[in-house]
User: Which sequence fits this backbone?
């Protein structure tokens, strides 16, 4: 599908979401480095174009299921910064009252239904959310995000089979960042392209440069349209690269230095920014203003989070079940 | 004729599911072989339901336990009340990630924003020669997981009432059906009557010794109590019905009354629910006990095939009788 002809406002909206993810990532890493925030952090930097483009195709009532490296997916779907940061800081004002933390954030009002810390587990649950939409007769769709490592787990195969069999309105978005934890793609996956596995489940498979937001948008728009029309699921393999290893603090000596340097030199957000200016979609000043606004919102969210109370220990007795445990 | 009114567990559960579906259009069923073209379930618990309610509400699935429980979780999060069948309790092992990491924990991890009102149905139990991978009682695993409720009815009446309560419940419930006693006739359930979760039932009152049990062992405990009545030993039988959360009040009150307690189950004795229950009784009532709480359960062995081995493995009449008599000697 041709990426040309994508509306200027859409391009700008994709950029806004990429900038938000990218700036939020810088702010998070800075907050951890300076000791303001203590949390495990799975940086998504480098992968921001994927959910930015996908989410721009989605409606507010569409839903996502994501994974522990998923803060970019949540931000792109519109989770409020205050709720996200307070959750990352383990505060009562967090989206989940500080009880789930960064690996398990959810915010159903934004369509962020579940974040799993288990590789591959976003997919079976996304199917269920999509099954509910189908039973209701709603045309909302569900996106399941996961990584290349998850394509080798049983849940991937069970989920794609069921989604295809039941024609569920779900879009499987594999963010192939070429490493499953510390193991290179080639050492773990017996097929060159994960997208090719789609044919085994009789659904379309799309292999796309996930760092090119316009190509990504074109592919996502097609898949979302298919799902919304009741034509069933699509598997998208979006090629990308994570800049900062598996988890923050990871020495990433297992990563190829030249490959990493090339990826960073090709930062998708910086590249798209230059392209927008070059094609006169936005002026440098307009983008700088947008970025300054984002930074201000992030800083306000950090301050709000860090000044919020921690949950009381009575919270251990709440939400285990609907009723409080005595 | 009174016997014509009797009903077995399969019929009682079928009626519970049908009544729940009739009452609430959000109740849906999925699982292996559950629709009528696939025989309405391997023993027929869901027979007739897809014909009556349509195959959109009673969906046969591929043999994909992670996909089944995942679909149940997602649909439940979006407002459905899902009864998922995984056929055999041992098959939950394929779906443990979905059950333990997700269904059980999503309410807590989301700070109450999402909930997973699902019932996971499964059958199990030794005695049918199905051996090591088709007959385990694994309720201890689930009872050990925060966020799950675990029930195991011993009679058709309780089967109906507990199923209705589990479907109403806003949290995930593990529903254990004993395979070898599926077709035993019992009193018919009262339509629409729920049996509250977490409430045990004293199925026989006694004064000398208490037996605490559930599922098939509770059924066996009844006849053991009848045998001992002839020896002038008065046995009180407590059927837990819900294994987690279990009814401490009823158990403690019976234990305080008799001062002698046997906890019996078909699960392995080693690290079984009996350990938790007996320890709780000892902690709460040490000075009122006439004897240490006794536990019986299966030996630390996989469920065996060969008939003499299977009989030795099962916690049945002889083991229960011996244990109760031993308690009376202290």
Assistant:
């Amino acid at each position: 599908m041709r990426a040309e002809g994508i509306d200027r406002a859409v391009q700008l909206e994709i950029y806004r979401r990429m900038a938000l993810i990218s700036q939020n990532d810088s702010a998070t890493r800075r907050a951890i480095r300076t000791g303001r925030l203590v949390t495990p952090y799975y940086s998504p930097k480098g992968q921001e174009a994927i959910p930015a483009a996908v989410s721009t195709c989605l409606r507010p009532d569409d839903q996502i299921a994501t994974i522990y490296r998923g803060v970019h997916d949540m931000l792109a779907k519109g989770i409020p910064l205050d709720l996200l940061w307070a959750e990352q800081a383990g505060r009562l004002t967090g989206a989940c009252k500080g009880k789930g933390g960064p690996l398990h954030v959810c915010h159903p009002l934004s369509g962020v239904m579940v974040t799993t810390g288990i590789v591959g587990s976003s997919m079976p649950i996304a199917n269920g959310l999509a099954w509910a939409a189908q039973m209701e007769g709603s045309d909302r769709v569900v996106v399941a995000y996961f990584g290349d490592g998850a394509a080798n787990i049983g849940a991937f195969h069970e989920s794609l089979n069921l989604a295809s069999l039941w024609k569920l309105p779900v879009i499987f978005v594999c963010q192939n960042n070429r490493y499953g934890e510390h193991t290179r793609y080639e050492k773990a996956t017996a097929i060159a392209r994960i997208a090719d596995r789609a044919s085994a489940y009789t659904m379309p498979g799309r292999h796309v440069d996930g760092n090119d937001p316009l190509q990504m948008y074109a592919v996502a728009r097609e898949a979302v349209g298919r799902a919304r029309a009741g034509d069933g699921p699509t598997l998208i393999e979006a090629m990308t690269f994570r800049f900062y290893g598996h988890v923050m603090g990871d020495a990433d000596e297992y990563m190829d230095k030249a490959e990493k340097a090339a990826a960073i030199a090709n930062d998708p957000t910086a590249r798209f920014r230059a392209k927008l200016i070059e094609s006169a979609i936005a002026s440098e000043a307009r983008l700088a203003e947008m970025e300054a606004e984002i930074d201000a919102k992030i800083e306000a969210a950090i301050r709000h989070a860090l000044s919020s109370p921690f949950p009381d220990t009575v919270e251990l007795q709440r939400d285990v079940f609907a009723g409080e445990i005595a | 004729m009174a016997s014509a009114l009797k009903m077995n567990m399969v019929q009682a559960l079928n009626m519970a599911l049908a009544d729940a579906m009739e009452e609430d259009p959000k109740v849906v069923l999925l699982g292996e072989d559950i629709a009528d073209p696939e025989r309405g379930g391997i023993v027929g618990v869901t027979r007739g339901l897809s014909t009556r309610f349509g195959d959109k509400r009673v969906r046969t699935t591929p043999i994909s336990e992670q996909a089944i429980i995942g679909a149940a979780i997602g649909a439940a999060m979006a407002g459905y009340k899902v009864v998922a069948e995984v056929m055999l309790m041992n098959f939950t092992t394929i779906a443990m990630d979905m059950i333990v990491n997700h269904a059980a924990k999503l309410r807590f991890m989301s700070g109450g924003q999402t909930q997973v009102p699902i019932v996971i149905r499964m059958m199990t139990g030794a005695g049918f020669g199905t051996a090591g991978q088709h007959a385990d009682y694994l309720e201890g695993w689930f009872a050990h997981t925060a966020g799950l409720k675990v029930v195991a009815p011993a009679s058709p009446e309780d089967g109906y009432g507990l199923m209705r309560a589990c479907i109403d419940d806003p949290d995930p419930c593990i529903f254990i059906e004993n395979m070898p006693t599926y077709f035993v006739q019992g009193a018919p359930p009262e339509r629409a009557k729920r049996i509250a979760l977490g409430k045990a039932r004293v199925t026989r009152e006694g004064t000398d010794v208490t037996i605490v049990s559930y599922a098939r062992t509770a059924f066996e405990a009844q006849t053991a109590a009848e045998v001992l009545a002839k020896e002038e030993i008065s046995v009180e039988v407590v059927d837990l019905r819900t294994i987690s959360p279990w009814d401490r009040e009823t158990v403690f009150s019976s234990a305080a009354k008799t001062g002698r307690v046997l906890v019996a189950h078909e699960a392995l004795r080693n690290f079984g629910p009996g350990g938790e229950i007996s320890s709780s009784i000892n902690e709460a009532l040490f000075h009122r006990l006439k004897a240490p709480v006794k536990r019986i359960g299966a030996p630390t062995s996989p469920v065996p095939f060969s008939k003499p081995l299977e009989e030795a493995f099962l916690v049945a009449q002889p083991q229960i009788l011996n244990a109760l008599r031993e308690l009376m000697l202290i």
In short: The two ends of chain B are 46 Å apart (CA to CA).
